[in-house]
């Protein structure tokens, strides 16, 4: 972790990932800020999910260094909560919403600790924070997509992590749920936690996020939203694929 900054919740240098011989992430450098909401932005297939999974050691990296609060993931794993992209989770397992949240307590509290009354109360509180307390005893498979998404966010909250990695937390949720999730994320930031979310709606980037990281296999731009989320950077990242309908105000104004 020689030159990687310990103050950053997530810093990577020279990260490359391939599937077989097909490159997915190439020589990426990135440094995310602490106590901030950061967005990872790029077109479909740009390597956003791959980037997160490689940072977490879920998939092997070809090369590069990853530092979480100045440590390798193996040493920092207790400080990290991850919510994968929804499509990648098996929704048929027979488990209630409350049990899903309590899985998040396992690492911290241990098996018996998480079965205690106070752990149950904490899990219910996490469900409450995402507006899902009324669904605690519902089977996860019987919830709508947006409700499932909120339960998995509640599980991440139950981990009481310092860094939250969220892969498309707003995909397929309704507007009210999106606002509820944004409020939760802002609450985390107010507590000094760091949030890094893959985000695909360019029109809300300036409202929701402090920092952006644009990727299309390679790192295209990075920095505070006001400085890095520019029409040029978006053009470099999306090329001709950036439809006007998806373009934020800043892009339209420049055209
Ligand atoms: N398990 C996998 N095996 C082979 N190729 C994959 C796998 N996962 C993703 N890819 C490919 O890697 C590229 C990046 O994928 P991904 O990280 O999911 O992109 P994003 O999340 O930005 O949409 C895509 O071309 C995708 O098809
Ligand atoms: Mg993805």
From TrEMBL:
<feature type="domain" description="ABC transporter">
    <location>
        <begin position="10"/>
        <end position="242"/>
    </location>
</feature>
<dbReference type="InterPro" id="IPR027417">
    <property type="entry name" value="P-loop_NTPase"/>
</dbReference>
<dbReference type="GO" id="GO:0006829">
    <property type="term" value="P:zinc ion transport"/>
</dbReference>
<dbReference type="InterPro" id="IPR003439">
    <property type="entry name" value="ABC_transporter-like_ATP-bd"/>
</dbReference>
<dbReference type="InterPro" id="IPR003593">
    <property type="entry name" value="AAA+_ATPase"/>
</dbReference>
<dbReference type="GO" id="GO:0005524">
    <property type="term" value="F:ATP binding"/>
</dbReference>
<dbReference type="InterPro" id="IPR050153">
    <property type="entry name" value="Metal_Ion_Import_ABC"/>
</dbReference>
<dbReference type="GO" id="GO:0016887">
    <property type="term" value="F:ATP hydrolysis activity"/>
</dbReference>
<dbReference type="InterPro" id="IPR017871">
    <property type="entry name" value="ABC_transporter-like_CS"/>
</dbReference>
<keyword id="KW-0067">ATP-binding</keyword>
<keyword id="KW-0547">Nucleotide-binding</keyword>
<keyword id="KW-0813">Transport</keyword>
<keyword id="KW-0406">Ion transport</keyword>
<keyword id="KW-0864">Zinc transport</keyword>
<protein>
    <submittedName>
        <fullName>Fe(3+) dicitrate transport ATP-binding protein FecE</fullName>
    </submittedName>
</protein>
<dbReference type="Pfam" id="PF00005">
    <property type="entry name" value="ABC_tran"/>
</dbReference>
<comment type="similarity">
    <text>Belongs to the ABC transporter superfamily.</text>
</comment>
<keyword id="KW-0862">Zinc</keyword>
